[in-house]
Amino acid sequence: MAEQEEQQITGLDTPVPGRSRTGRAVALARLLHHECTHLLELYIERESLMSDHTPEGGRIVSLSPDSEEPSTEEQVQQLHSALRQCLGLLHCLILREEEEMGDLEGNYEAMKKNVRFRLEHLLASTKDLVETEDKTLEVTPDNQCNEEIDGAVGSFAAKMWTYRVLLELIHWADHAAQTLHVLHTEREGTEEI
What DSSP letter does each residue of 116-159 carry, written as one string? Predict the structure, then answer.
């Protein structure tokens, strides 16, 4: 089963000859969303007590729009900023878990690395799509791991924070797929990817 899923995921990531840059970015965002969802499933499986709890609080990553009705390109630039914040949160999550438990192996750890790789790749793709002479986009994580978590390391609060970070990744990967699909439709004149 795991081999079939890995083959399916690899197939989704393989460049399709003739596919546009926006089409590849949409496919990458969809793949990232799939992998983020799977990462959350693996986390819930690992932390069996989490299945009974839903984290409270609003978005960790939030953006204030530069204008009232931003163009699609401006929306992608804002999305890029949100994805950088997500990458920063993911880096903090990885550092925190490595400090707590060391460098572990397993499906959850492997998927976490895949998600980080895909997110970095999506950041590079969105940068290439909308960077202009007037607007330079960074692809480095936008977070210094200075968020305080109520409670000690390994506490329930730390586990809930991890849960919230994974939900953020799912939210923003889905938002990326939708926003990039709009950009693709505008630039390519077709909804087909």
Answer: HHHHHHHHHHHHHHH--SS-----S----S----SS-TTSHHHH
**How many other C-beta atoms are found inside a 10 Å radius of the C-beta of residue 50?**
19
pLDDT in tens, 120-148: 999 999 999 987 777 777 777 776 676 65
- State the burial class of residue 100 (Cβ atoms within 10 Å of its Cβ: 0-12, 13-18, 19+): exposed
* CB contact burial 26-36 (16+ within 10 A = b; e otherwise): bbbbbbbbbbb
pLDDT digits 0-9 by tens, 38-51? 999 999 888 876 66
pTM: 0.83
Count CB atoms within 10 A of the CB of residue 7: 10
